[in-house]
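# step 3/5: fold
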Amino acid sequence: MAARRRRQESAVLIKWLKQKRASTLKDSVIIYSHPRSGLHLLSLGIYLMGEHFNKEHTYAEVWGNDHMPSHRHWFQDLEPAEVDLQFKKHILLLRDFGDLAATQNAETVAGLNVPGYTQQICRFEQLKSPKMVVYYEDLISDNNTFIKVADFLDIKYDLKKIDFEHLKKYAHDLYLDSGHKPSVKQEASAPRKLCNRNNIRFKLKNQQEHDLFDKYLRRYDNG
Protein backbone atom coordinates (compact mmCIF):
# COMPACT_ATOMS: atom_id res chain seq x y z
CA MET A 1 0.00 0.00 0.00
CA ALA A 2 2.78 2.41 0.93
CA ALA A 3 4.63 1.79 -2.33
CA ARG A 4 1.43 2.29 -4.33
CA ARG A 5 0.72 5.53 -2.49
CA ARG A 6 4.21 6.81 -3.23
CA ARG A 7 3.77 6.01 -6.94
CA GLN A 8 0.46 7.85 -6.99
CA GLU A 9 1.97 10.87 -5.23
CA SER A 10 4.86 10.85 -7.66
CA ALA A 11 2.49 10.74 -10.63
CA VAL A 12 0.53 13.70 -9.22
CA LEU A 13 3.75 15.67 -8.70
CA ILE A 14 4.96 14.97 -12.24
CA LYS A 15 1.60 16.03 -13.67
CA TRP A 16 1.68 19.25 -11.65
CA LEU A 17 5.25 20.04 -12.71
CA LYS A 18 4.42 19.52 -16.38
CA GLN A 19 1.43 21.84 -16.07
CA LYS A 20 3.63 24.44 -14.39
CA ARG A 21 5.93 24.70 -17.44
CA ALA A 22 4.02 27.82 -18.29
CA SER A 23 4.50 30.62 -20.79
CA THR A 24 5.95 33.28 -18.50
CA LEU A 25 9.72 33.60 -18.27
CA LYS A 26 9.58 33.16 -14.51
CA ASP A 27 7.82 29.82 -14.80
CA SER A 28 9.75 28.49 -17.77
CA VAL A 29 13.38 29.54 -17.22
CA ILE A 30 15.72 29.27 -14.24
CA ILE A 31 19.25 30.56 -13.63
CA TYR A 32 21.66 28.78 -11.26
CA SER A 33 24.61 30.71 -9.85
CA HIS A 34 27.00 31.26 -6.96
CA PRO A 35 26.45 34.57 -5.12
CA ARG A 36 28.45 37.45 -6.62
CA SER A 37 28.44 35.89 -10.09
CA GLY A 38 26.38 38.50 -11.93
CA LEU A 39 22.87 37.16 -11.35
CA HIS A 40 21.39 40.67 -11.18
CA LEU A 41 23.29 41.82 -14.27
CA LEU A 42 22.08 38.86 -16.33
CA SER A 43 18.49 38.83 -15.03
CA LEU A 44 18.00 42.59 -15.27
CA GLY A 45 19.73 42.63 -18.66
CA ILE A 46 17.26 40.05 -19.96
CA TYR A 47 14.38 42.17 -18.67
CA LEU A 48 15.80 45.40 -20.10
CA MET A 49 16.22 43.83 -23.55
CA GLY A 50 12.67 42.55 -23.71
CA GLU A 51 9.50 44.18 -24.93
CA HIS A 52 8.10 44.38 -21.38
CA PHE A 53 10.78 46.81 -20.17
CA ASN A 54 9.47 49.94 -18.46
CA LYS A 55 12.07 52.49 -17.34
CA GLU A 56 9.68 53.79 -14.70
CA HIS A 57 9.67 50.48 -12.83
CA THR A 58 11.45 50.32 -9.49
CA TYR A 59 13.63 47.41 -8.39
CA ALA A 60 10.78 46.06 -6.25
CA GLU A 61 8.48 46.03 -9.29
CA VAL A 62 11.07 44.41 -11.54
CA TRP A 63 12.84 41.80 -9.45
CA GLY A 64 10.96 38.54 -9.45
CA ASN A 65 8.20 39.62 -11.81
CA ASP A 66 6.87 37.30 -14.52
CA HIS A 67 9.19 38.73 -17.18
CA MET A 68 12.37 37.66 -15.40
CA PRO A 69 13.73 34.12 -15.00
CA SER A 70 13.55 32.27 -11.71
CA HIS A 71 16.86 31.78 -9.94
CA ARG A 72 18.54 29.64 -7.31
CA HIS A 73 21.99 29.85 -5.78
CA TRP A 74 24.07 26.65 -5.84
CA PHE A 75 21.13 24.58 -7.22
CA GLN A 76 20.17 24.41 -3.52
CA ASP A 77 17.29 22.09 -2.50
CA LEU A 78 16.58 21.23 -6.14
CA GLU A 79 16.82 17.87 -7.88
CA PRO A 80 17.68 17.77 -11.60
CA ALA A 81 14.82 15.41 -12.47
CA GLU A 82 12.23 17.70 -10.89
CA VAL A 83 13.47 21.01 -12.34
CA ASP A 84 13.78 19.30 -15.72
CA LEU A 85 10.02 18.89 -15.61
CA GLN A 86 9.28 22.25 -14.03
CA PHE A 87 11.33 24.49 -16.35
CA LYS A 88 11.76 24.46 -20.11
CA LYS A 89 15.21 26.05 -20.19
CA HIS A 90 18.14 26.33 -17.80
CA ILE A 91 21.12 28.69 -17.51
CA LEU A 92 24.23 28.10 -15.43
CA LEU A 93 25.98 31.39 -14.65
CA LEU A 94 29.63 30.92 -13.70
CA ARG A 95 32.35 33.26 -12.45
CA ASP A 96 36.06 32.66 -11.88
CA PHE A 97 36.28 30.84 -8.55
CA GLY A 98 39.51 32.69 -7.81
CA ASP A 99 37.73 36.02 -8.03
CA LEU A 100 34.82 34.76 -5.94
CA ALA A 101 37.22 33.68 -3.21
CA ALA A 102 38.54 37.23 -3.03
CA THR A 103 35.13 38.94 -3.16
CA GLN A 104 33.15 40.24 -0.21
CA ASN A 105 30.96 43.11 0.94
CA ALA A 106 30.02 44.66 4.26
CA GLU A 107 27.05 42.35 4.78
CA THR A 108 28.32 38.90 3.86
CA VAL A 109 31.20 36.67 4.75
CA ALA A 110 33.93 36.77 2.17
CA GLY A 111 34.83 33.85 0.05
CA LEU A 112 33.90 30.95 -2.11
CA ASN A 113 31.48 28.19 -1.18
CA VAL A 114 33.29 25.27 -2.81
CA PRO A 115 30.58 22.63 -2.16
CA GLY A 116 27.90 24.96 -3.58
CA TYR A 117 30.04 25.98 -6.54
CA THR A 118 30.71 22.39 -7.56
CA GLN A 119 27.21 21.14 -6.72
CA GLN A 120 25.60 23.54 -9.19
CA ILE A 121 27.86 22.24 -11.97
CA CYS A 122 27.28 18.57 -11.19
CA ARG A 123 23.51 18.95 -11.04
CA PHE A 124 23.38 21.17 -14.10
CA GLU A 125 25.26 18.48 -16.03
CA GLN A 126 22.44 16.01 -15.28
CA LEU A 127 19.71 18.17 -16.84
CA LYS A 128 18.10 16.93 -20.06
CA SER A 129 16.16 20.07 -21.02
CA PRO A 130 17.74 22.79 -23.21
CA LYS A 131 20.49 24.52 -21.25
CA MET A 132 23.14 27.17 -21.65
CA VAL A 133 26.31 28.14 -19.77
CA VAL A 134 27.02 31.85 -19.36
CA TYR A 135 30.21 33.32 -17.92
CA TYR A 136 30.21 36.50 -15.86
CA GLU A 137 33.35 37.75 -17.58
CA ASP A 138 31.60 37.54 -20.96
CA LEU A 139 28.65 39.56 -19.68
CA ILE A 140 31.06 42.31 -18.73
CA SER A 141 33.22 42.30 -21.86
CA ASP A 142 31.06 41.04 -24.75
CA ASN A 143 27.63 42.51 -25.48
CA ASN A 144 26.91 39.60 -27.81
CA THR A 145 26.52 37.46 -24.70
CA PHE A 146 23.25 39.21 -23.89
CA ILE A 147 22.09 38.67 -27.47
CA LYS A 148 22.95 34.96 -27.33
CA VAL A 149 21.01 34.57 -24.08
CA ALA A 150 18.01 36.47 -25.47
CA ASP A 151 18.02 34.27 -28.58
CA PHE A 152 18.27 31.13 -26.45
CA LEU A 153 15.23 32.27 -24.46
CA ASP A 154 13.30 33.41 -27.55
CA ILE A 155 13.04 36.95 -26.18
CA LYS A 156 11.86 39.57 -28.65
CA TYR A 157 14.18 42.59 -28.84
CA ASP A 158 15.16 45.42 -31.16
CA LEU A 159 18.93 45.94 -31.36
CA LYS A 160 18.40 49.45 -32.75
CA LYS A 161 16.87 50.44 -29.42
CA ILE A 162 19.47 48.81 -27.17
CA ASP A 163 22.46 50.70 -25.79
CA PHE A 164 24.36 47.98 -23.93
CA GLU A 165 26.46 50.38 -21.88
CA HIS A 166 23.28 52.11 -20.75
CA LEU A 167 21.74 48.69 -20.10
CA LYS A 168 24.62 47.70 -17.82
CA LYS A 169 24.54 51.04 -15.98
CA TYR A 170 20.76 50.86 -15.54
CA ALA A 171 21.03 47.31 -14.17
CA HIS A 172 23.80 48.42 -11.81
CA ASP A 173 21.78 51.41 -10.59
CA LEU A 174 18.73 49.23 -9.92
CA TYR A 175 20.99 46.82 -8.03
CA LEU A 176 22.29 49.61 -5.78
CA ASP A 177 18.80 51.10 -5.34
CA SER A 178 17.67 47.75 -3.97
CA GLY A 179 20.06 48.11 -1.04
CA HIS A 180 22.70 45.68 -2.28
CA LYS A 181 26.29 46.65 -1.67
CA PRO A 182 29.04 46.53 -4.31
CA SER A 183 31.75 43.92 -3.87
CA VAL A 184 35.16 44.70 -2.46
CA LYS A 185 37.97 42.58 -3.83
CA GLN A 186 40.65 41.36 -1.47
CA GLU A 187 43.50 39.38 -2.96
CA ALA A 188 43.64 35.80 -1.69
CA SER A 189 46.97 34.26 -0.78
CA ALA A 190 48.70 31.96 -3.28
CA PRO A 191 48.27 28.89 -1.03
CA ARG A 192 44.54 29.61 -0.65
CA LYS A 193 44.12 29.99 -4.43
CA LEU A 194 45.86 26.68 -5.03
CA CYS A 195 43.79 24.97 -2.33
CA ASN A 196 40.50 26.20 -3.84
CA ARG A 197 41.55 25.15 -7.33
CA ASN A 198 42.66 21.68 -6.26
CA ASN A 199 39.54 21.17 -4.13
CA ILE A 200 37.25 22.11 -7.02
CA ARG A 201 39.17 19.92 -9.48
CA PHE A 202 38.93 16.96 -7.09
CA LYS A 203 35.17 17.32 -6.56
CA LEU A 204 34.37 17.74 -10.25
CA LYS A 205 36.60 14.87 -11.35
CA ASN A 206 35.26 12.41 -8.81
CA GLN A 207 31.51 13.01 -8.99
CA GLN A 208 31.14 12.25 -12.69
CA GLU A 209 32.61 9.79 -15.18
CA HIS A 210 34.23 12.59 -17.16
CA ASP A 211 36.12 15.73 -16.24
CA LEU A 212 33.59 18.47 -15.47
CA PHE A 213 36.35 20.84 -14.43
CA ASP A 214 37.77 20.74 -17.93
CA LYS A 215 34.32 21.04 -19.50
CA TYR A 216 33.06 24.01 -17.49
CA LEU A 217 36.07 25.72 -15.90
CA ARG A 218 39.01 25.26 -18.27
CA ARG A 219 39.17 29.01 -18.93
CA TYR A 220 39.90 29.58 -15.23
CA ASP A 221 42.69 27.05 -14.91
CA ASN A 222 45.88 29.02 -14.47
CA GLY A 223 48.12 26.15 -13.59
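# step 4/5: annotate
The chain has one domain: 2-220.
# step 5/5: archive (pending)
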